[in-house]
Amino acid sequence: MINNVYYILKEKPLCSTLIKMPKYRLVYFNARGKAETARILFALAGEEYEDVRLFPDLPWPSQEGKDKWIETKSELGLPFGQVPVLDVDGKRLCQSNVIAKYLAKQFGFAGKGVWEEARAEMISACVYDAFQKGRPCSLEQDPIKKAELLEKFLKDSKEIMDNFRQILEENGGGSGFFVGDGITWADINFAVRIDQIFDRIGENADKFLKDWPKLLALKQRVEKYPKIAEWIEKRPKTTR
Ligand SMILES: N[C@@H](CCC(=O)N[C@@H](CS)C(=O)NCC(=O)O)C(=O)O
């Protein structure tokens, strides 16, 4: 029954060699949203996983989609009733940043040592907070209130971008990454989540970032990693 609502993007037999590889399954809606950082980490690491997308044929947001979600979610075994959920050999994790950090540690993109790991986590938490601020605007239906919320979000975001710029520049001048000397899940989170929220509010993240050229260059650096670029090219095209 549950399998009928799943869209399995890739269904390949997992490693059958002598080394037992963990079997990963990532469950989310048919959107980039809070699952995309994890998907990019899988792409960057070249790791197999099942990209499970719930109700790909139902429009979202719609009453039909919401009804189907309420009807189905109790059957999915979600630890706290929300997605994304990562299933690792039948054990489950929720919370997008926890999932991303777990995968980053598994695949070597969490930062080197305790301090870099903590900095990457700090930046990811700030990315989450910064872009959650766009949600009221993205959900508002009244055009006048929406315009007011958009103005406030863009104004608040300018201050936050200055903070991100400063943190980036503190790390060797700002032409590398947020933490250490290589890409971490913090850079990926920044690049992914800014696109996602700006798309949701009908704005363009790259256009907005023109006033912070080093942040724009960081985003483009992340997107140009060959394995990431390949995933961006082939992933399902979704509006959010
Ligand atoms: N803090 C959580 C929030 C998860 C969340 O809000 N998930 C939404 C989808 S983006 C959800 O499951 N909504 C359906 C529901 O709450 O019933 C995270 O980062 O994973």
Output the structural class. alpha+beta
Q: Identify the strand order in the major beta sheet.
A: 1-3-2-4-5
Can you give the helix content as a percent range? 40-55%
N/C terminus separation: 27 Å
Q: Radius of gyration over alpha carbons?
A: 18 Å
What's the number of domains? Answer: 2
Order of helices and strands: EEHEHEEHHHHHHHH
**Residue share in β-strands:** 5-15%
Taking the sheet with the most strands, its summary is: 5 strands, mixed
Shape: globular
Total strands: 5
Mean of pLDDT: 90
Tally of alpha and pi helices: 10
CATH-defined architecture of the largest domain: Up-down Bundle
CATH fold topology of the largest domain: Glutathione S-transferase Yfyf (Class Pi), Chain A, domain 2
Descriptive overview:
With 240 residues, this protein is an alpha+beta fold. The chain folds into two domains: 2-107, Glutaredoxin, CATH 3.40.30; 113-224, Glutathione S-transferase Yfyf (Class Pi), Chain A, domain 2. The protein contains ten helices and five strands. The protein has helices spanning 36-45, 63-73, 96-107, 113-132, 135-139, 143-170, 185-200, 205-208, 213-224, 226-234; strands spanning 6-8, 24-29, 50-54, 85-88, 91-94. A five-stranded mixed sheet has the order 1-3-2-4-5, with helices on one face. Strand 4 (85-88) and strand 5 form a beta hairpin. Helix 1 (36-45) runs parallel beside helix 3 (96-107) and helix 1 (36-45) packs across helix 10 (226-234). The model is unreliable at 1-17 (pLDDT under 50). Bound molecules: glutathione. Keywords: Eye lens protein, Transferase. It is an enzyme of class 2 (transferase).
